[in-house]
Amino acid sequence: MYRRGDQGWIEVICGPMFSGKSEELIRRVTRSKIARVPVQTFKPALDTRFAKAEVVSHSLLSVTAEPVPDSFTLLKMIDDVTEVVGIDEGQFFDDRIIEVAERLAKSGKQVIVAGLDLDYLGRPFEPIPTLCTRSEYVTKMLAVCHRCGAPAAFTQRIIKSDDLVVLGATDAYEARCRNCYDPEEPEQPRLGMDR
Ligand code: ADP
Ligand code: MG
Ligand code: ZN
Does domain 9-141 have CATH number 3.40.50.300? Predict the structure, then answer.
């Protein structure tokens, strides 16, 4: 028999860079903390030497977070009492994050994953798109197009590099609307609204 509060679920917060995914994750995690619900927040430790133990948004909101090298480690670090599990930069986890999120949800936890749904070439950025299909709630965030101000669903790389991940370089990207987005566009200076 279903009893309210017994059941876990998965929430995905997706969208391009600068769309407020981390802000929204921080907001939800902070509300749980205020309600004294046991929370654990994680982020991928892409570079464990420099990984700071917090999630920070572009607007400089922050929350304590545990850097983890992979999804298996994340699963091992979960406390029994934890009710809410927040995960930022979900696109940088291996595909097993889907199975991990499902196991946590099945054991009654609320799992909130924020991450990019598209890479800089406009291709689905797994595991986020698949995770969306396996989740109860999906929030698609939009940024403001750095070129024209329209709602922006795409992330444009404005420096030259063929690597999927250019680490720690927010200056390397702009949020773009459908009309201004062009992955073929040559390298060009950033028109930041935040600078
Ligand atoms: P994400 O995690 O999706 O990359 P963050 O939550 O870190 O986004 O940052 C969102 C914040 O970034 C906004 O509240 C705003 O202050 C700032 N910002 C900078 N550039 C933009 C932009 N082009 N569109 C929207 N917000 C922007
Ligand atoms: Mg973010
Ligand atoms: Zn635009």
Answer: yes
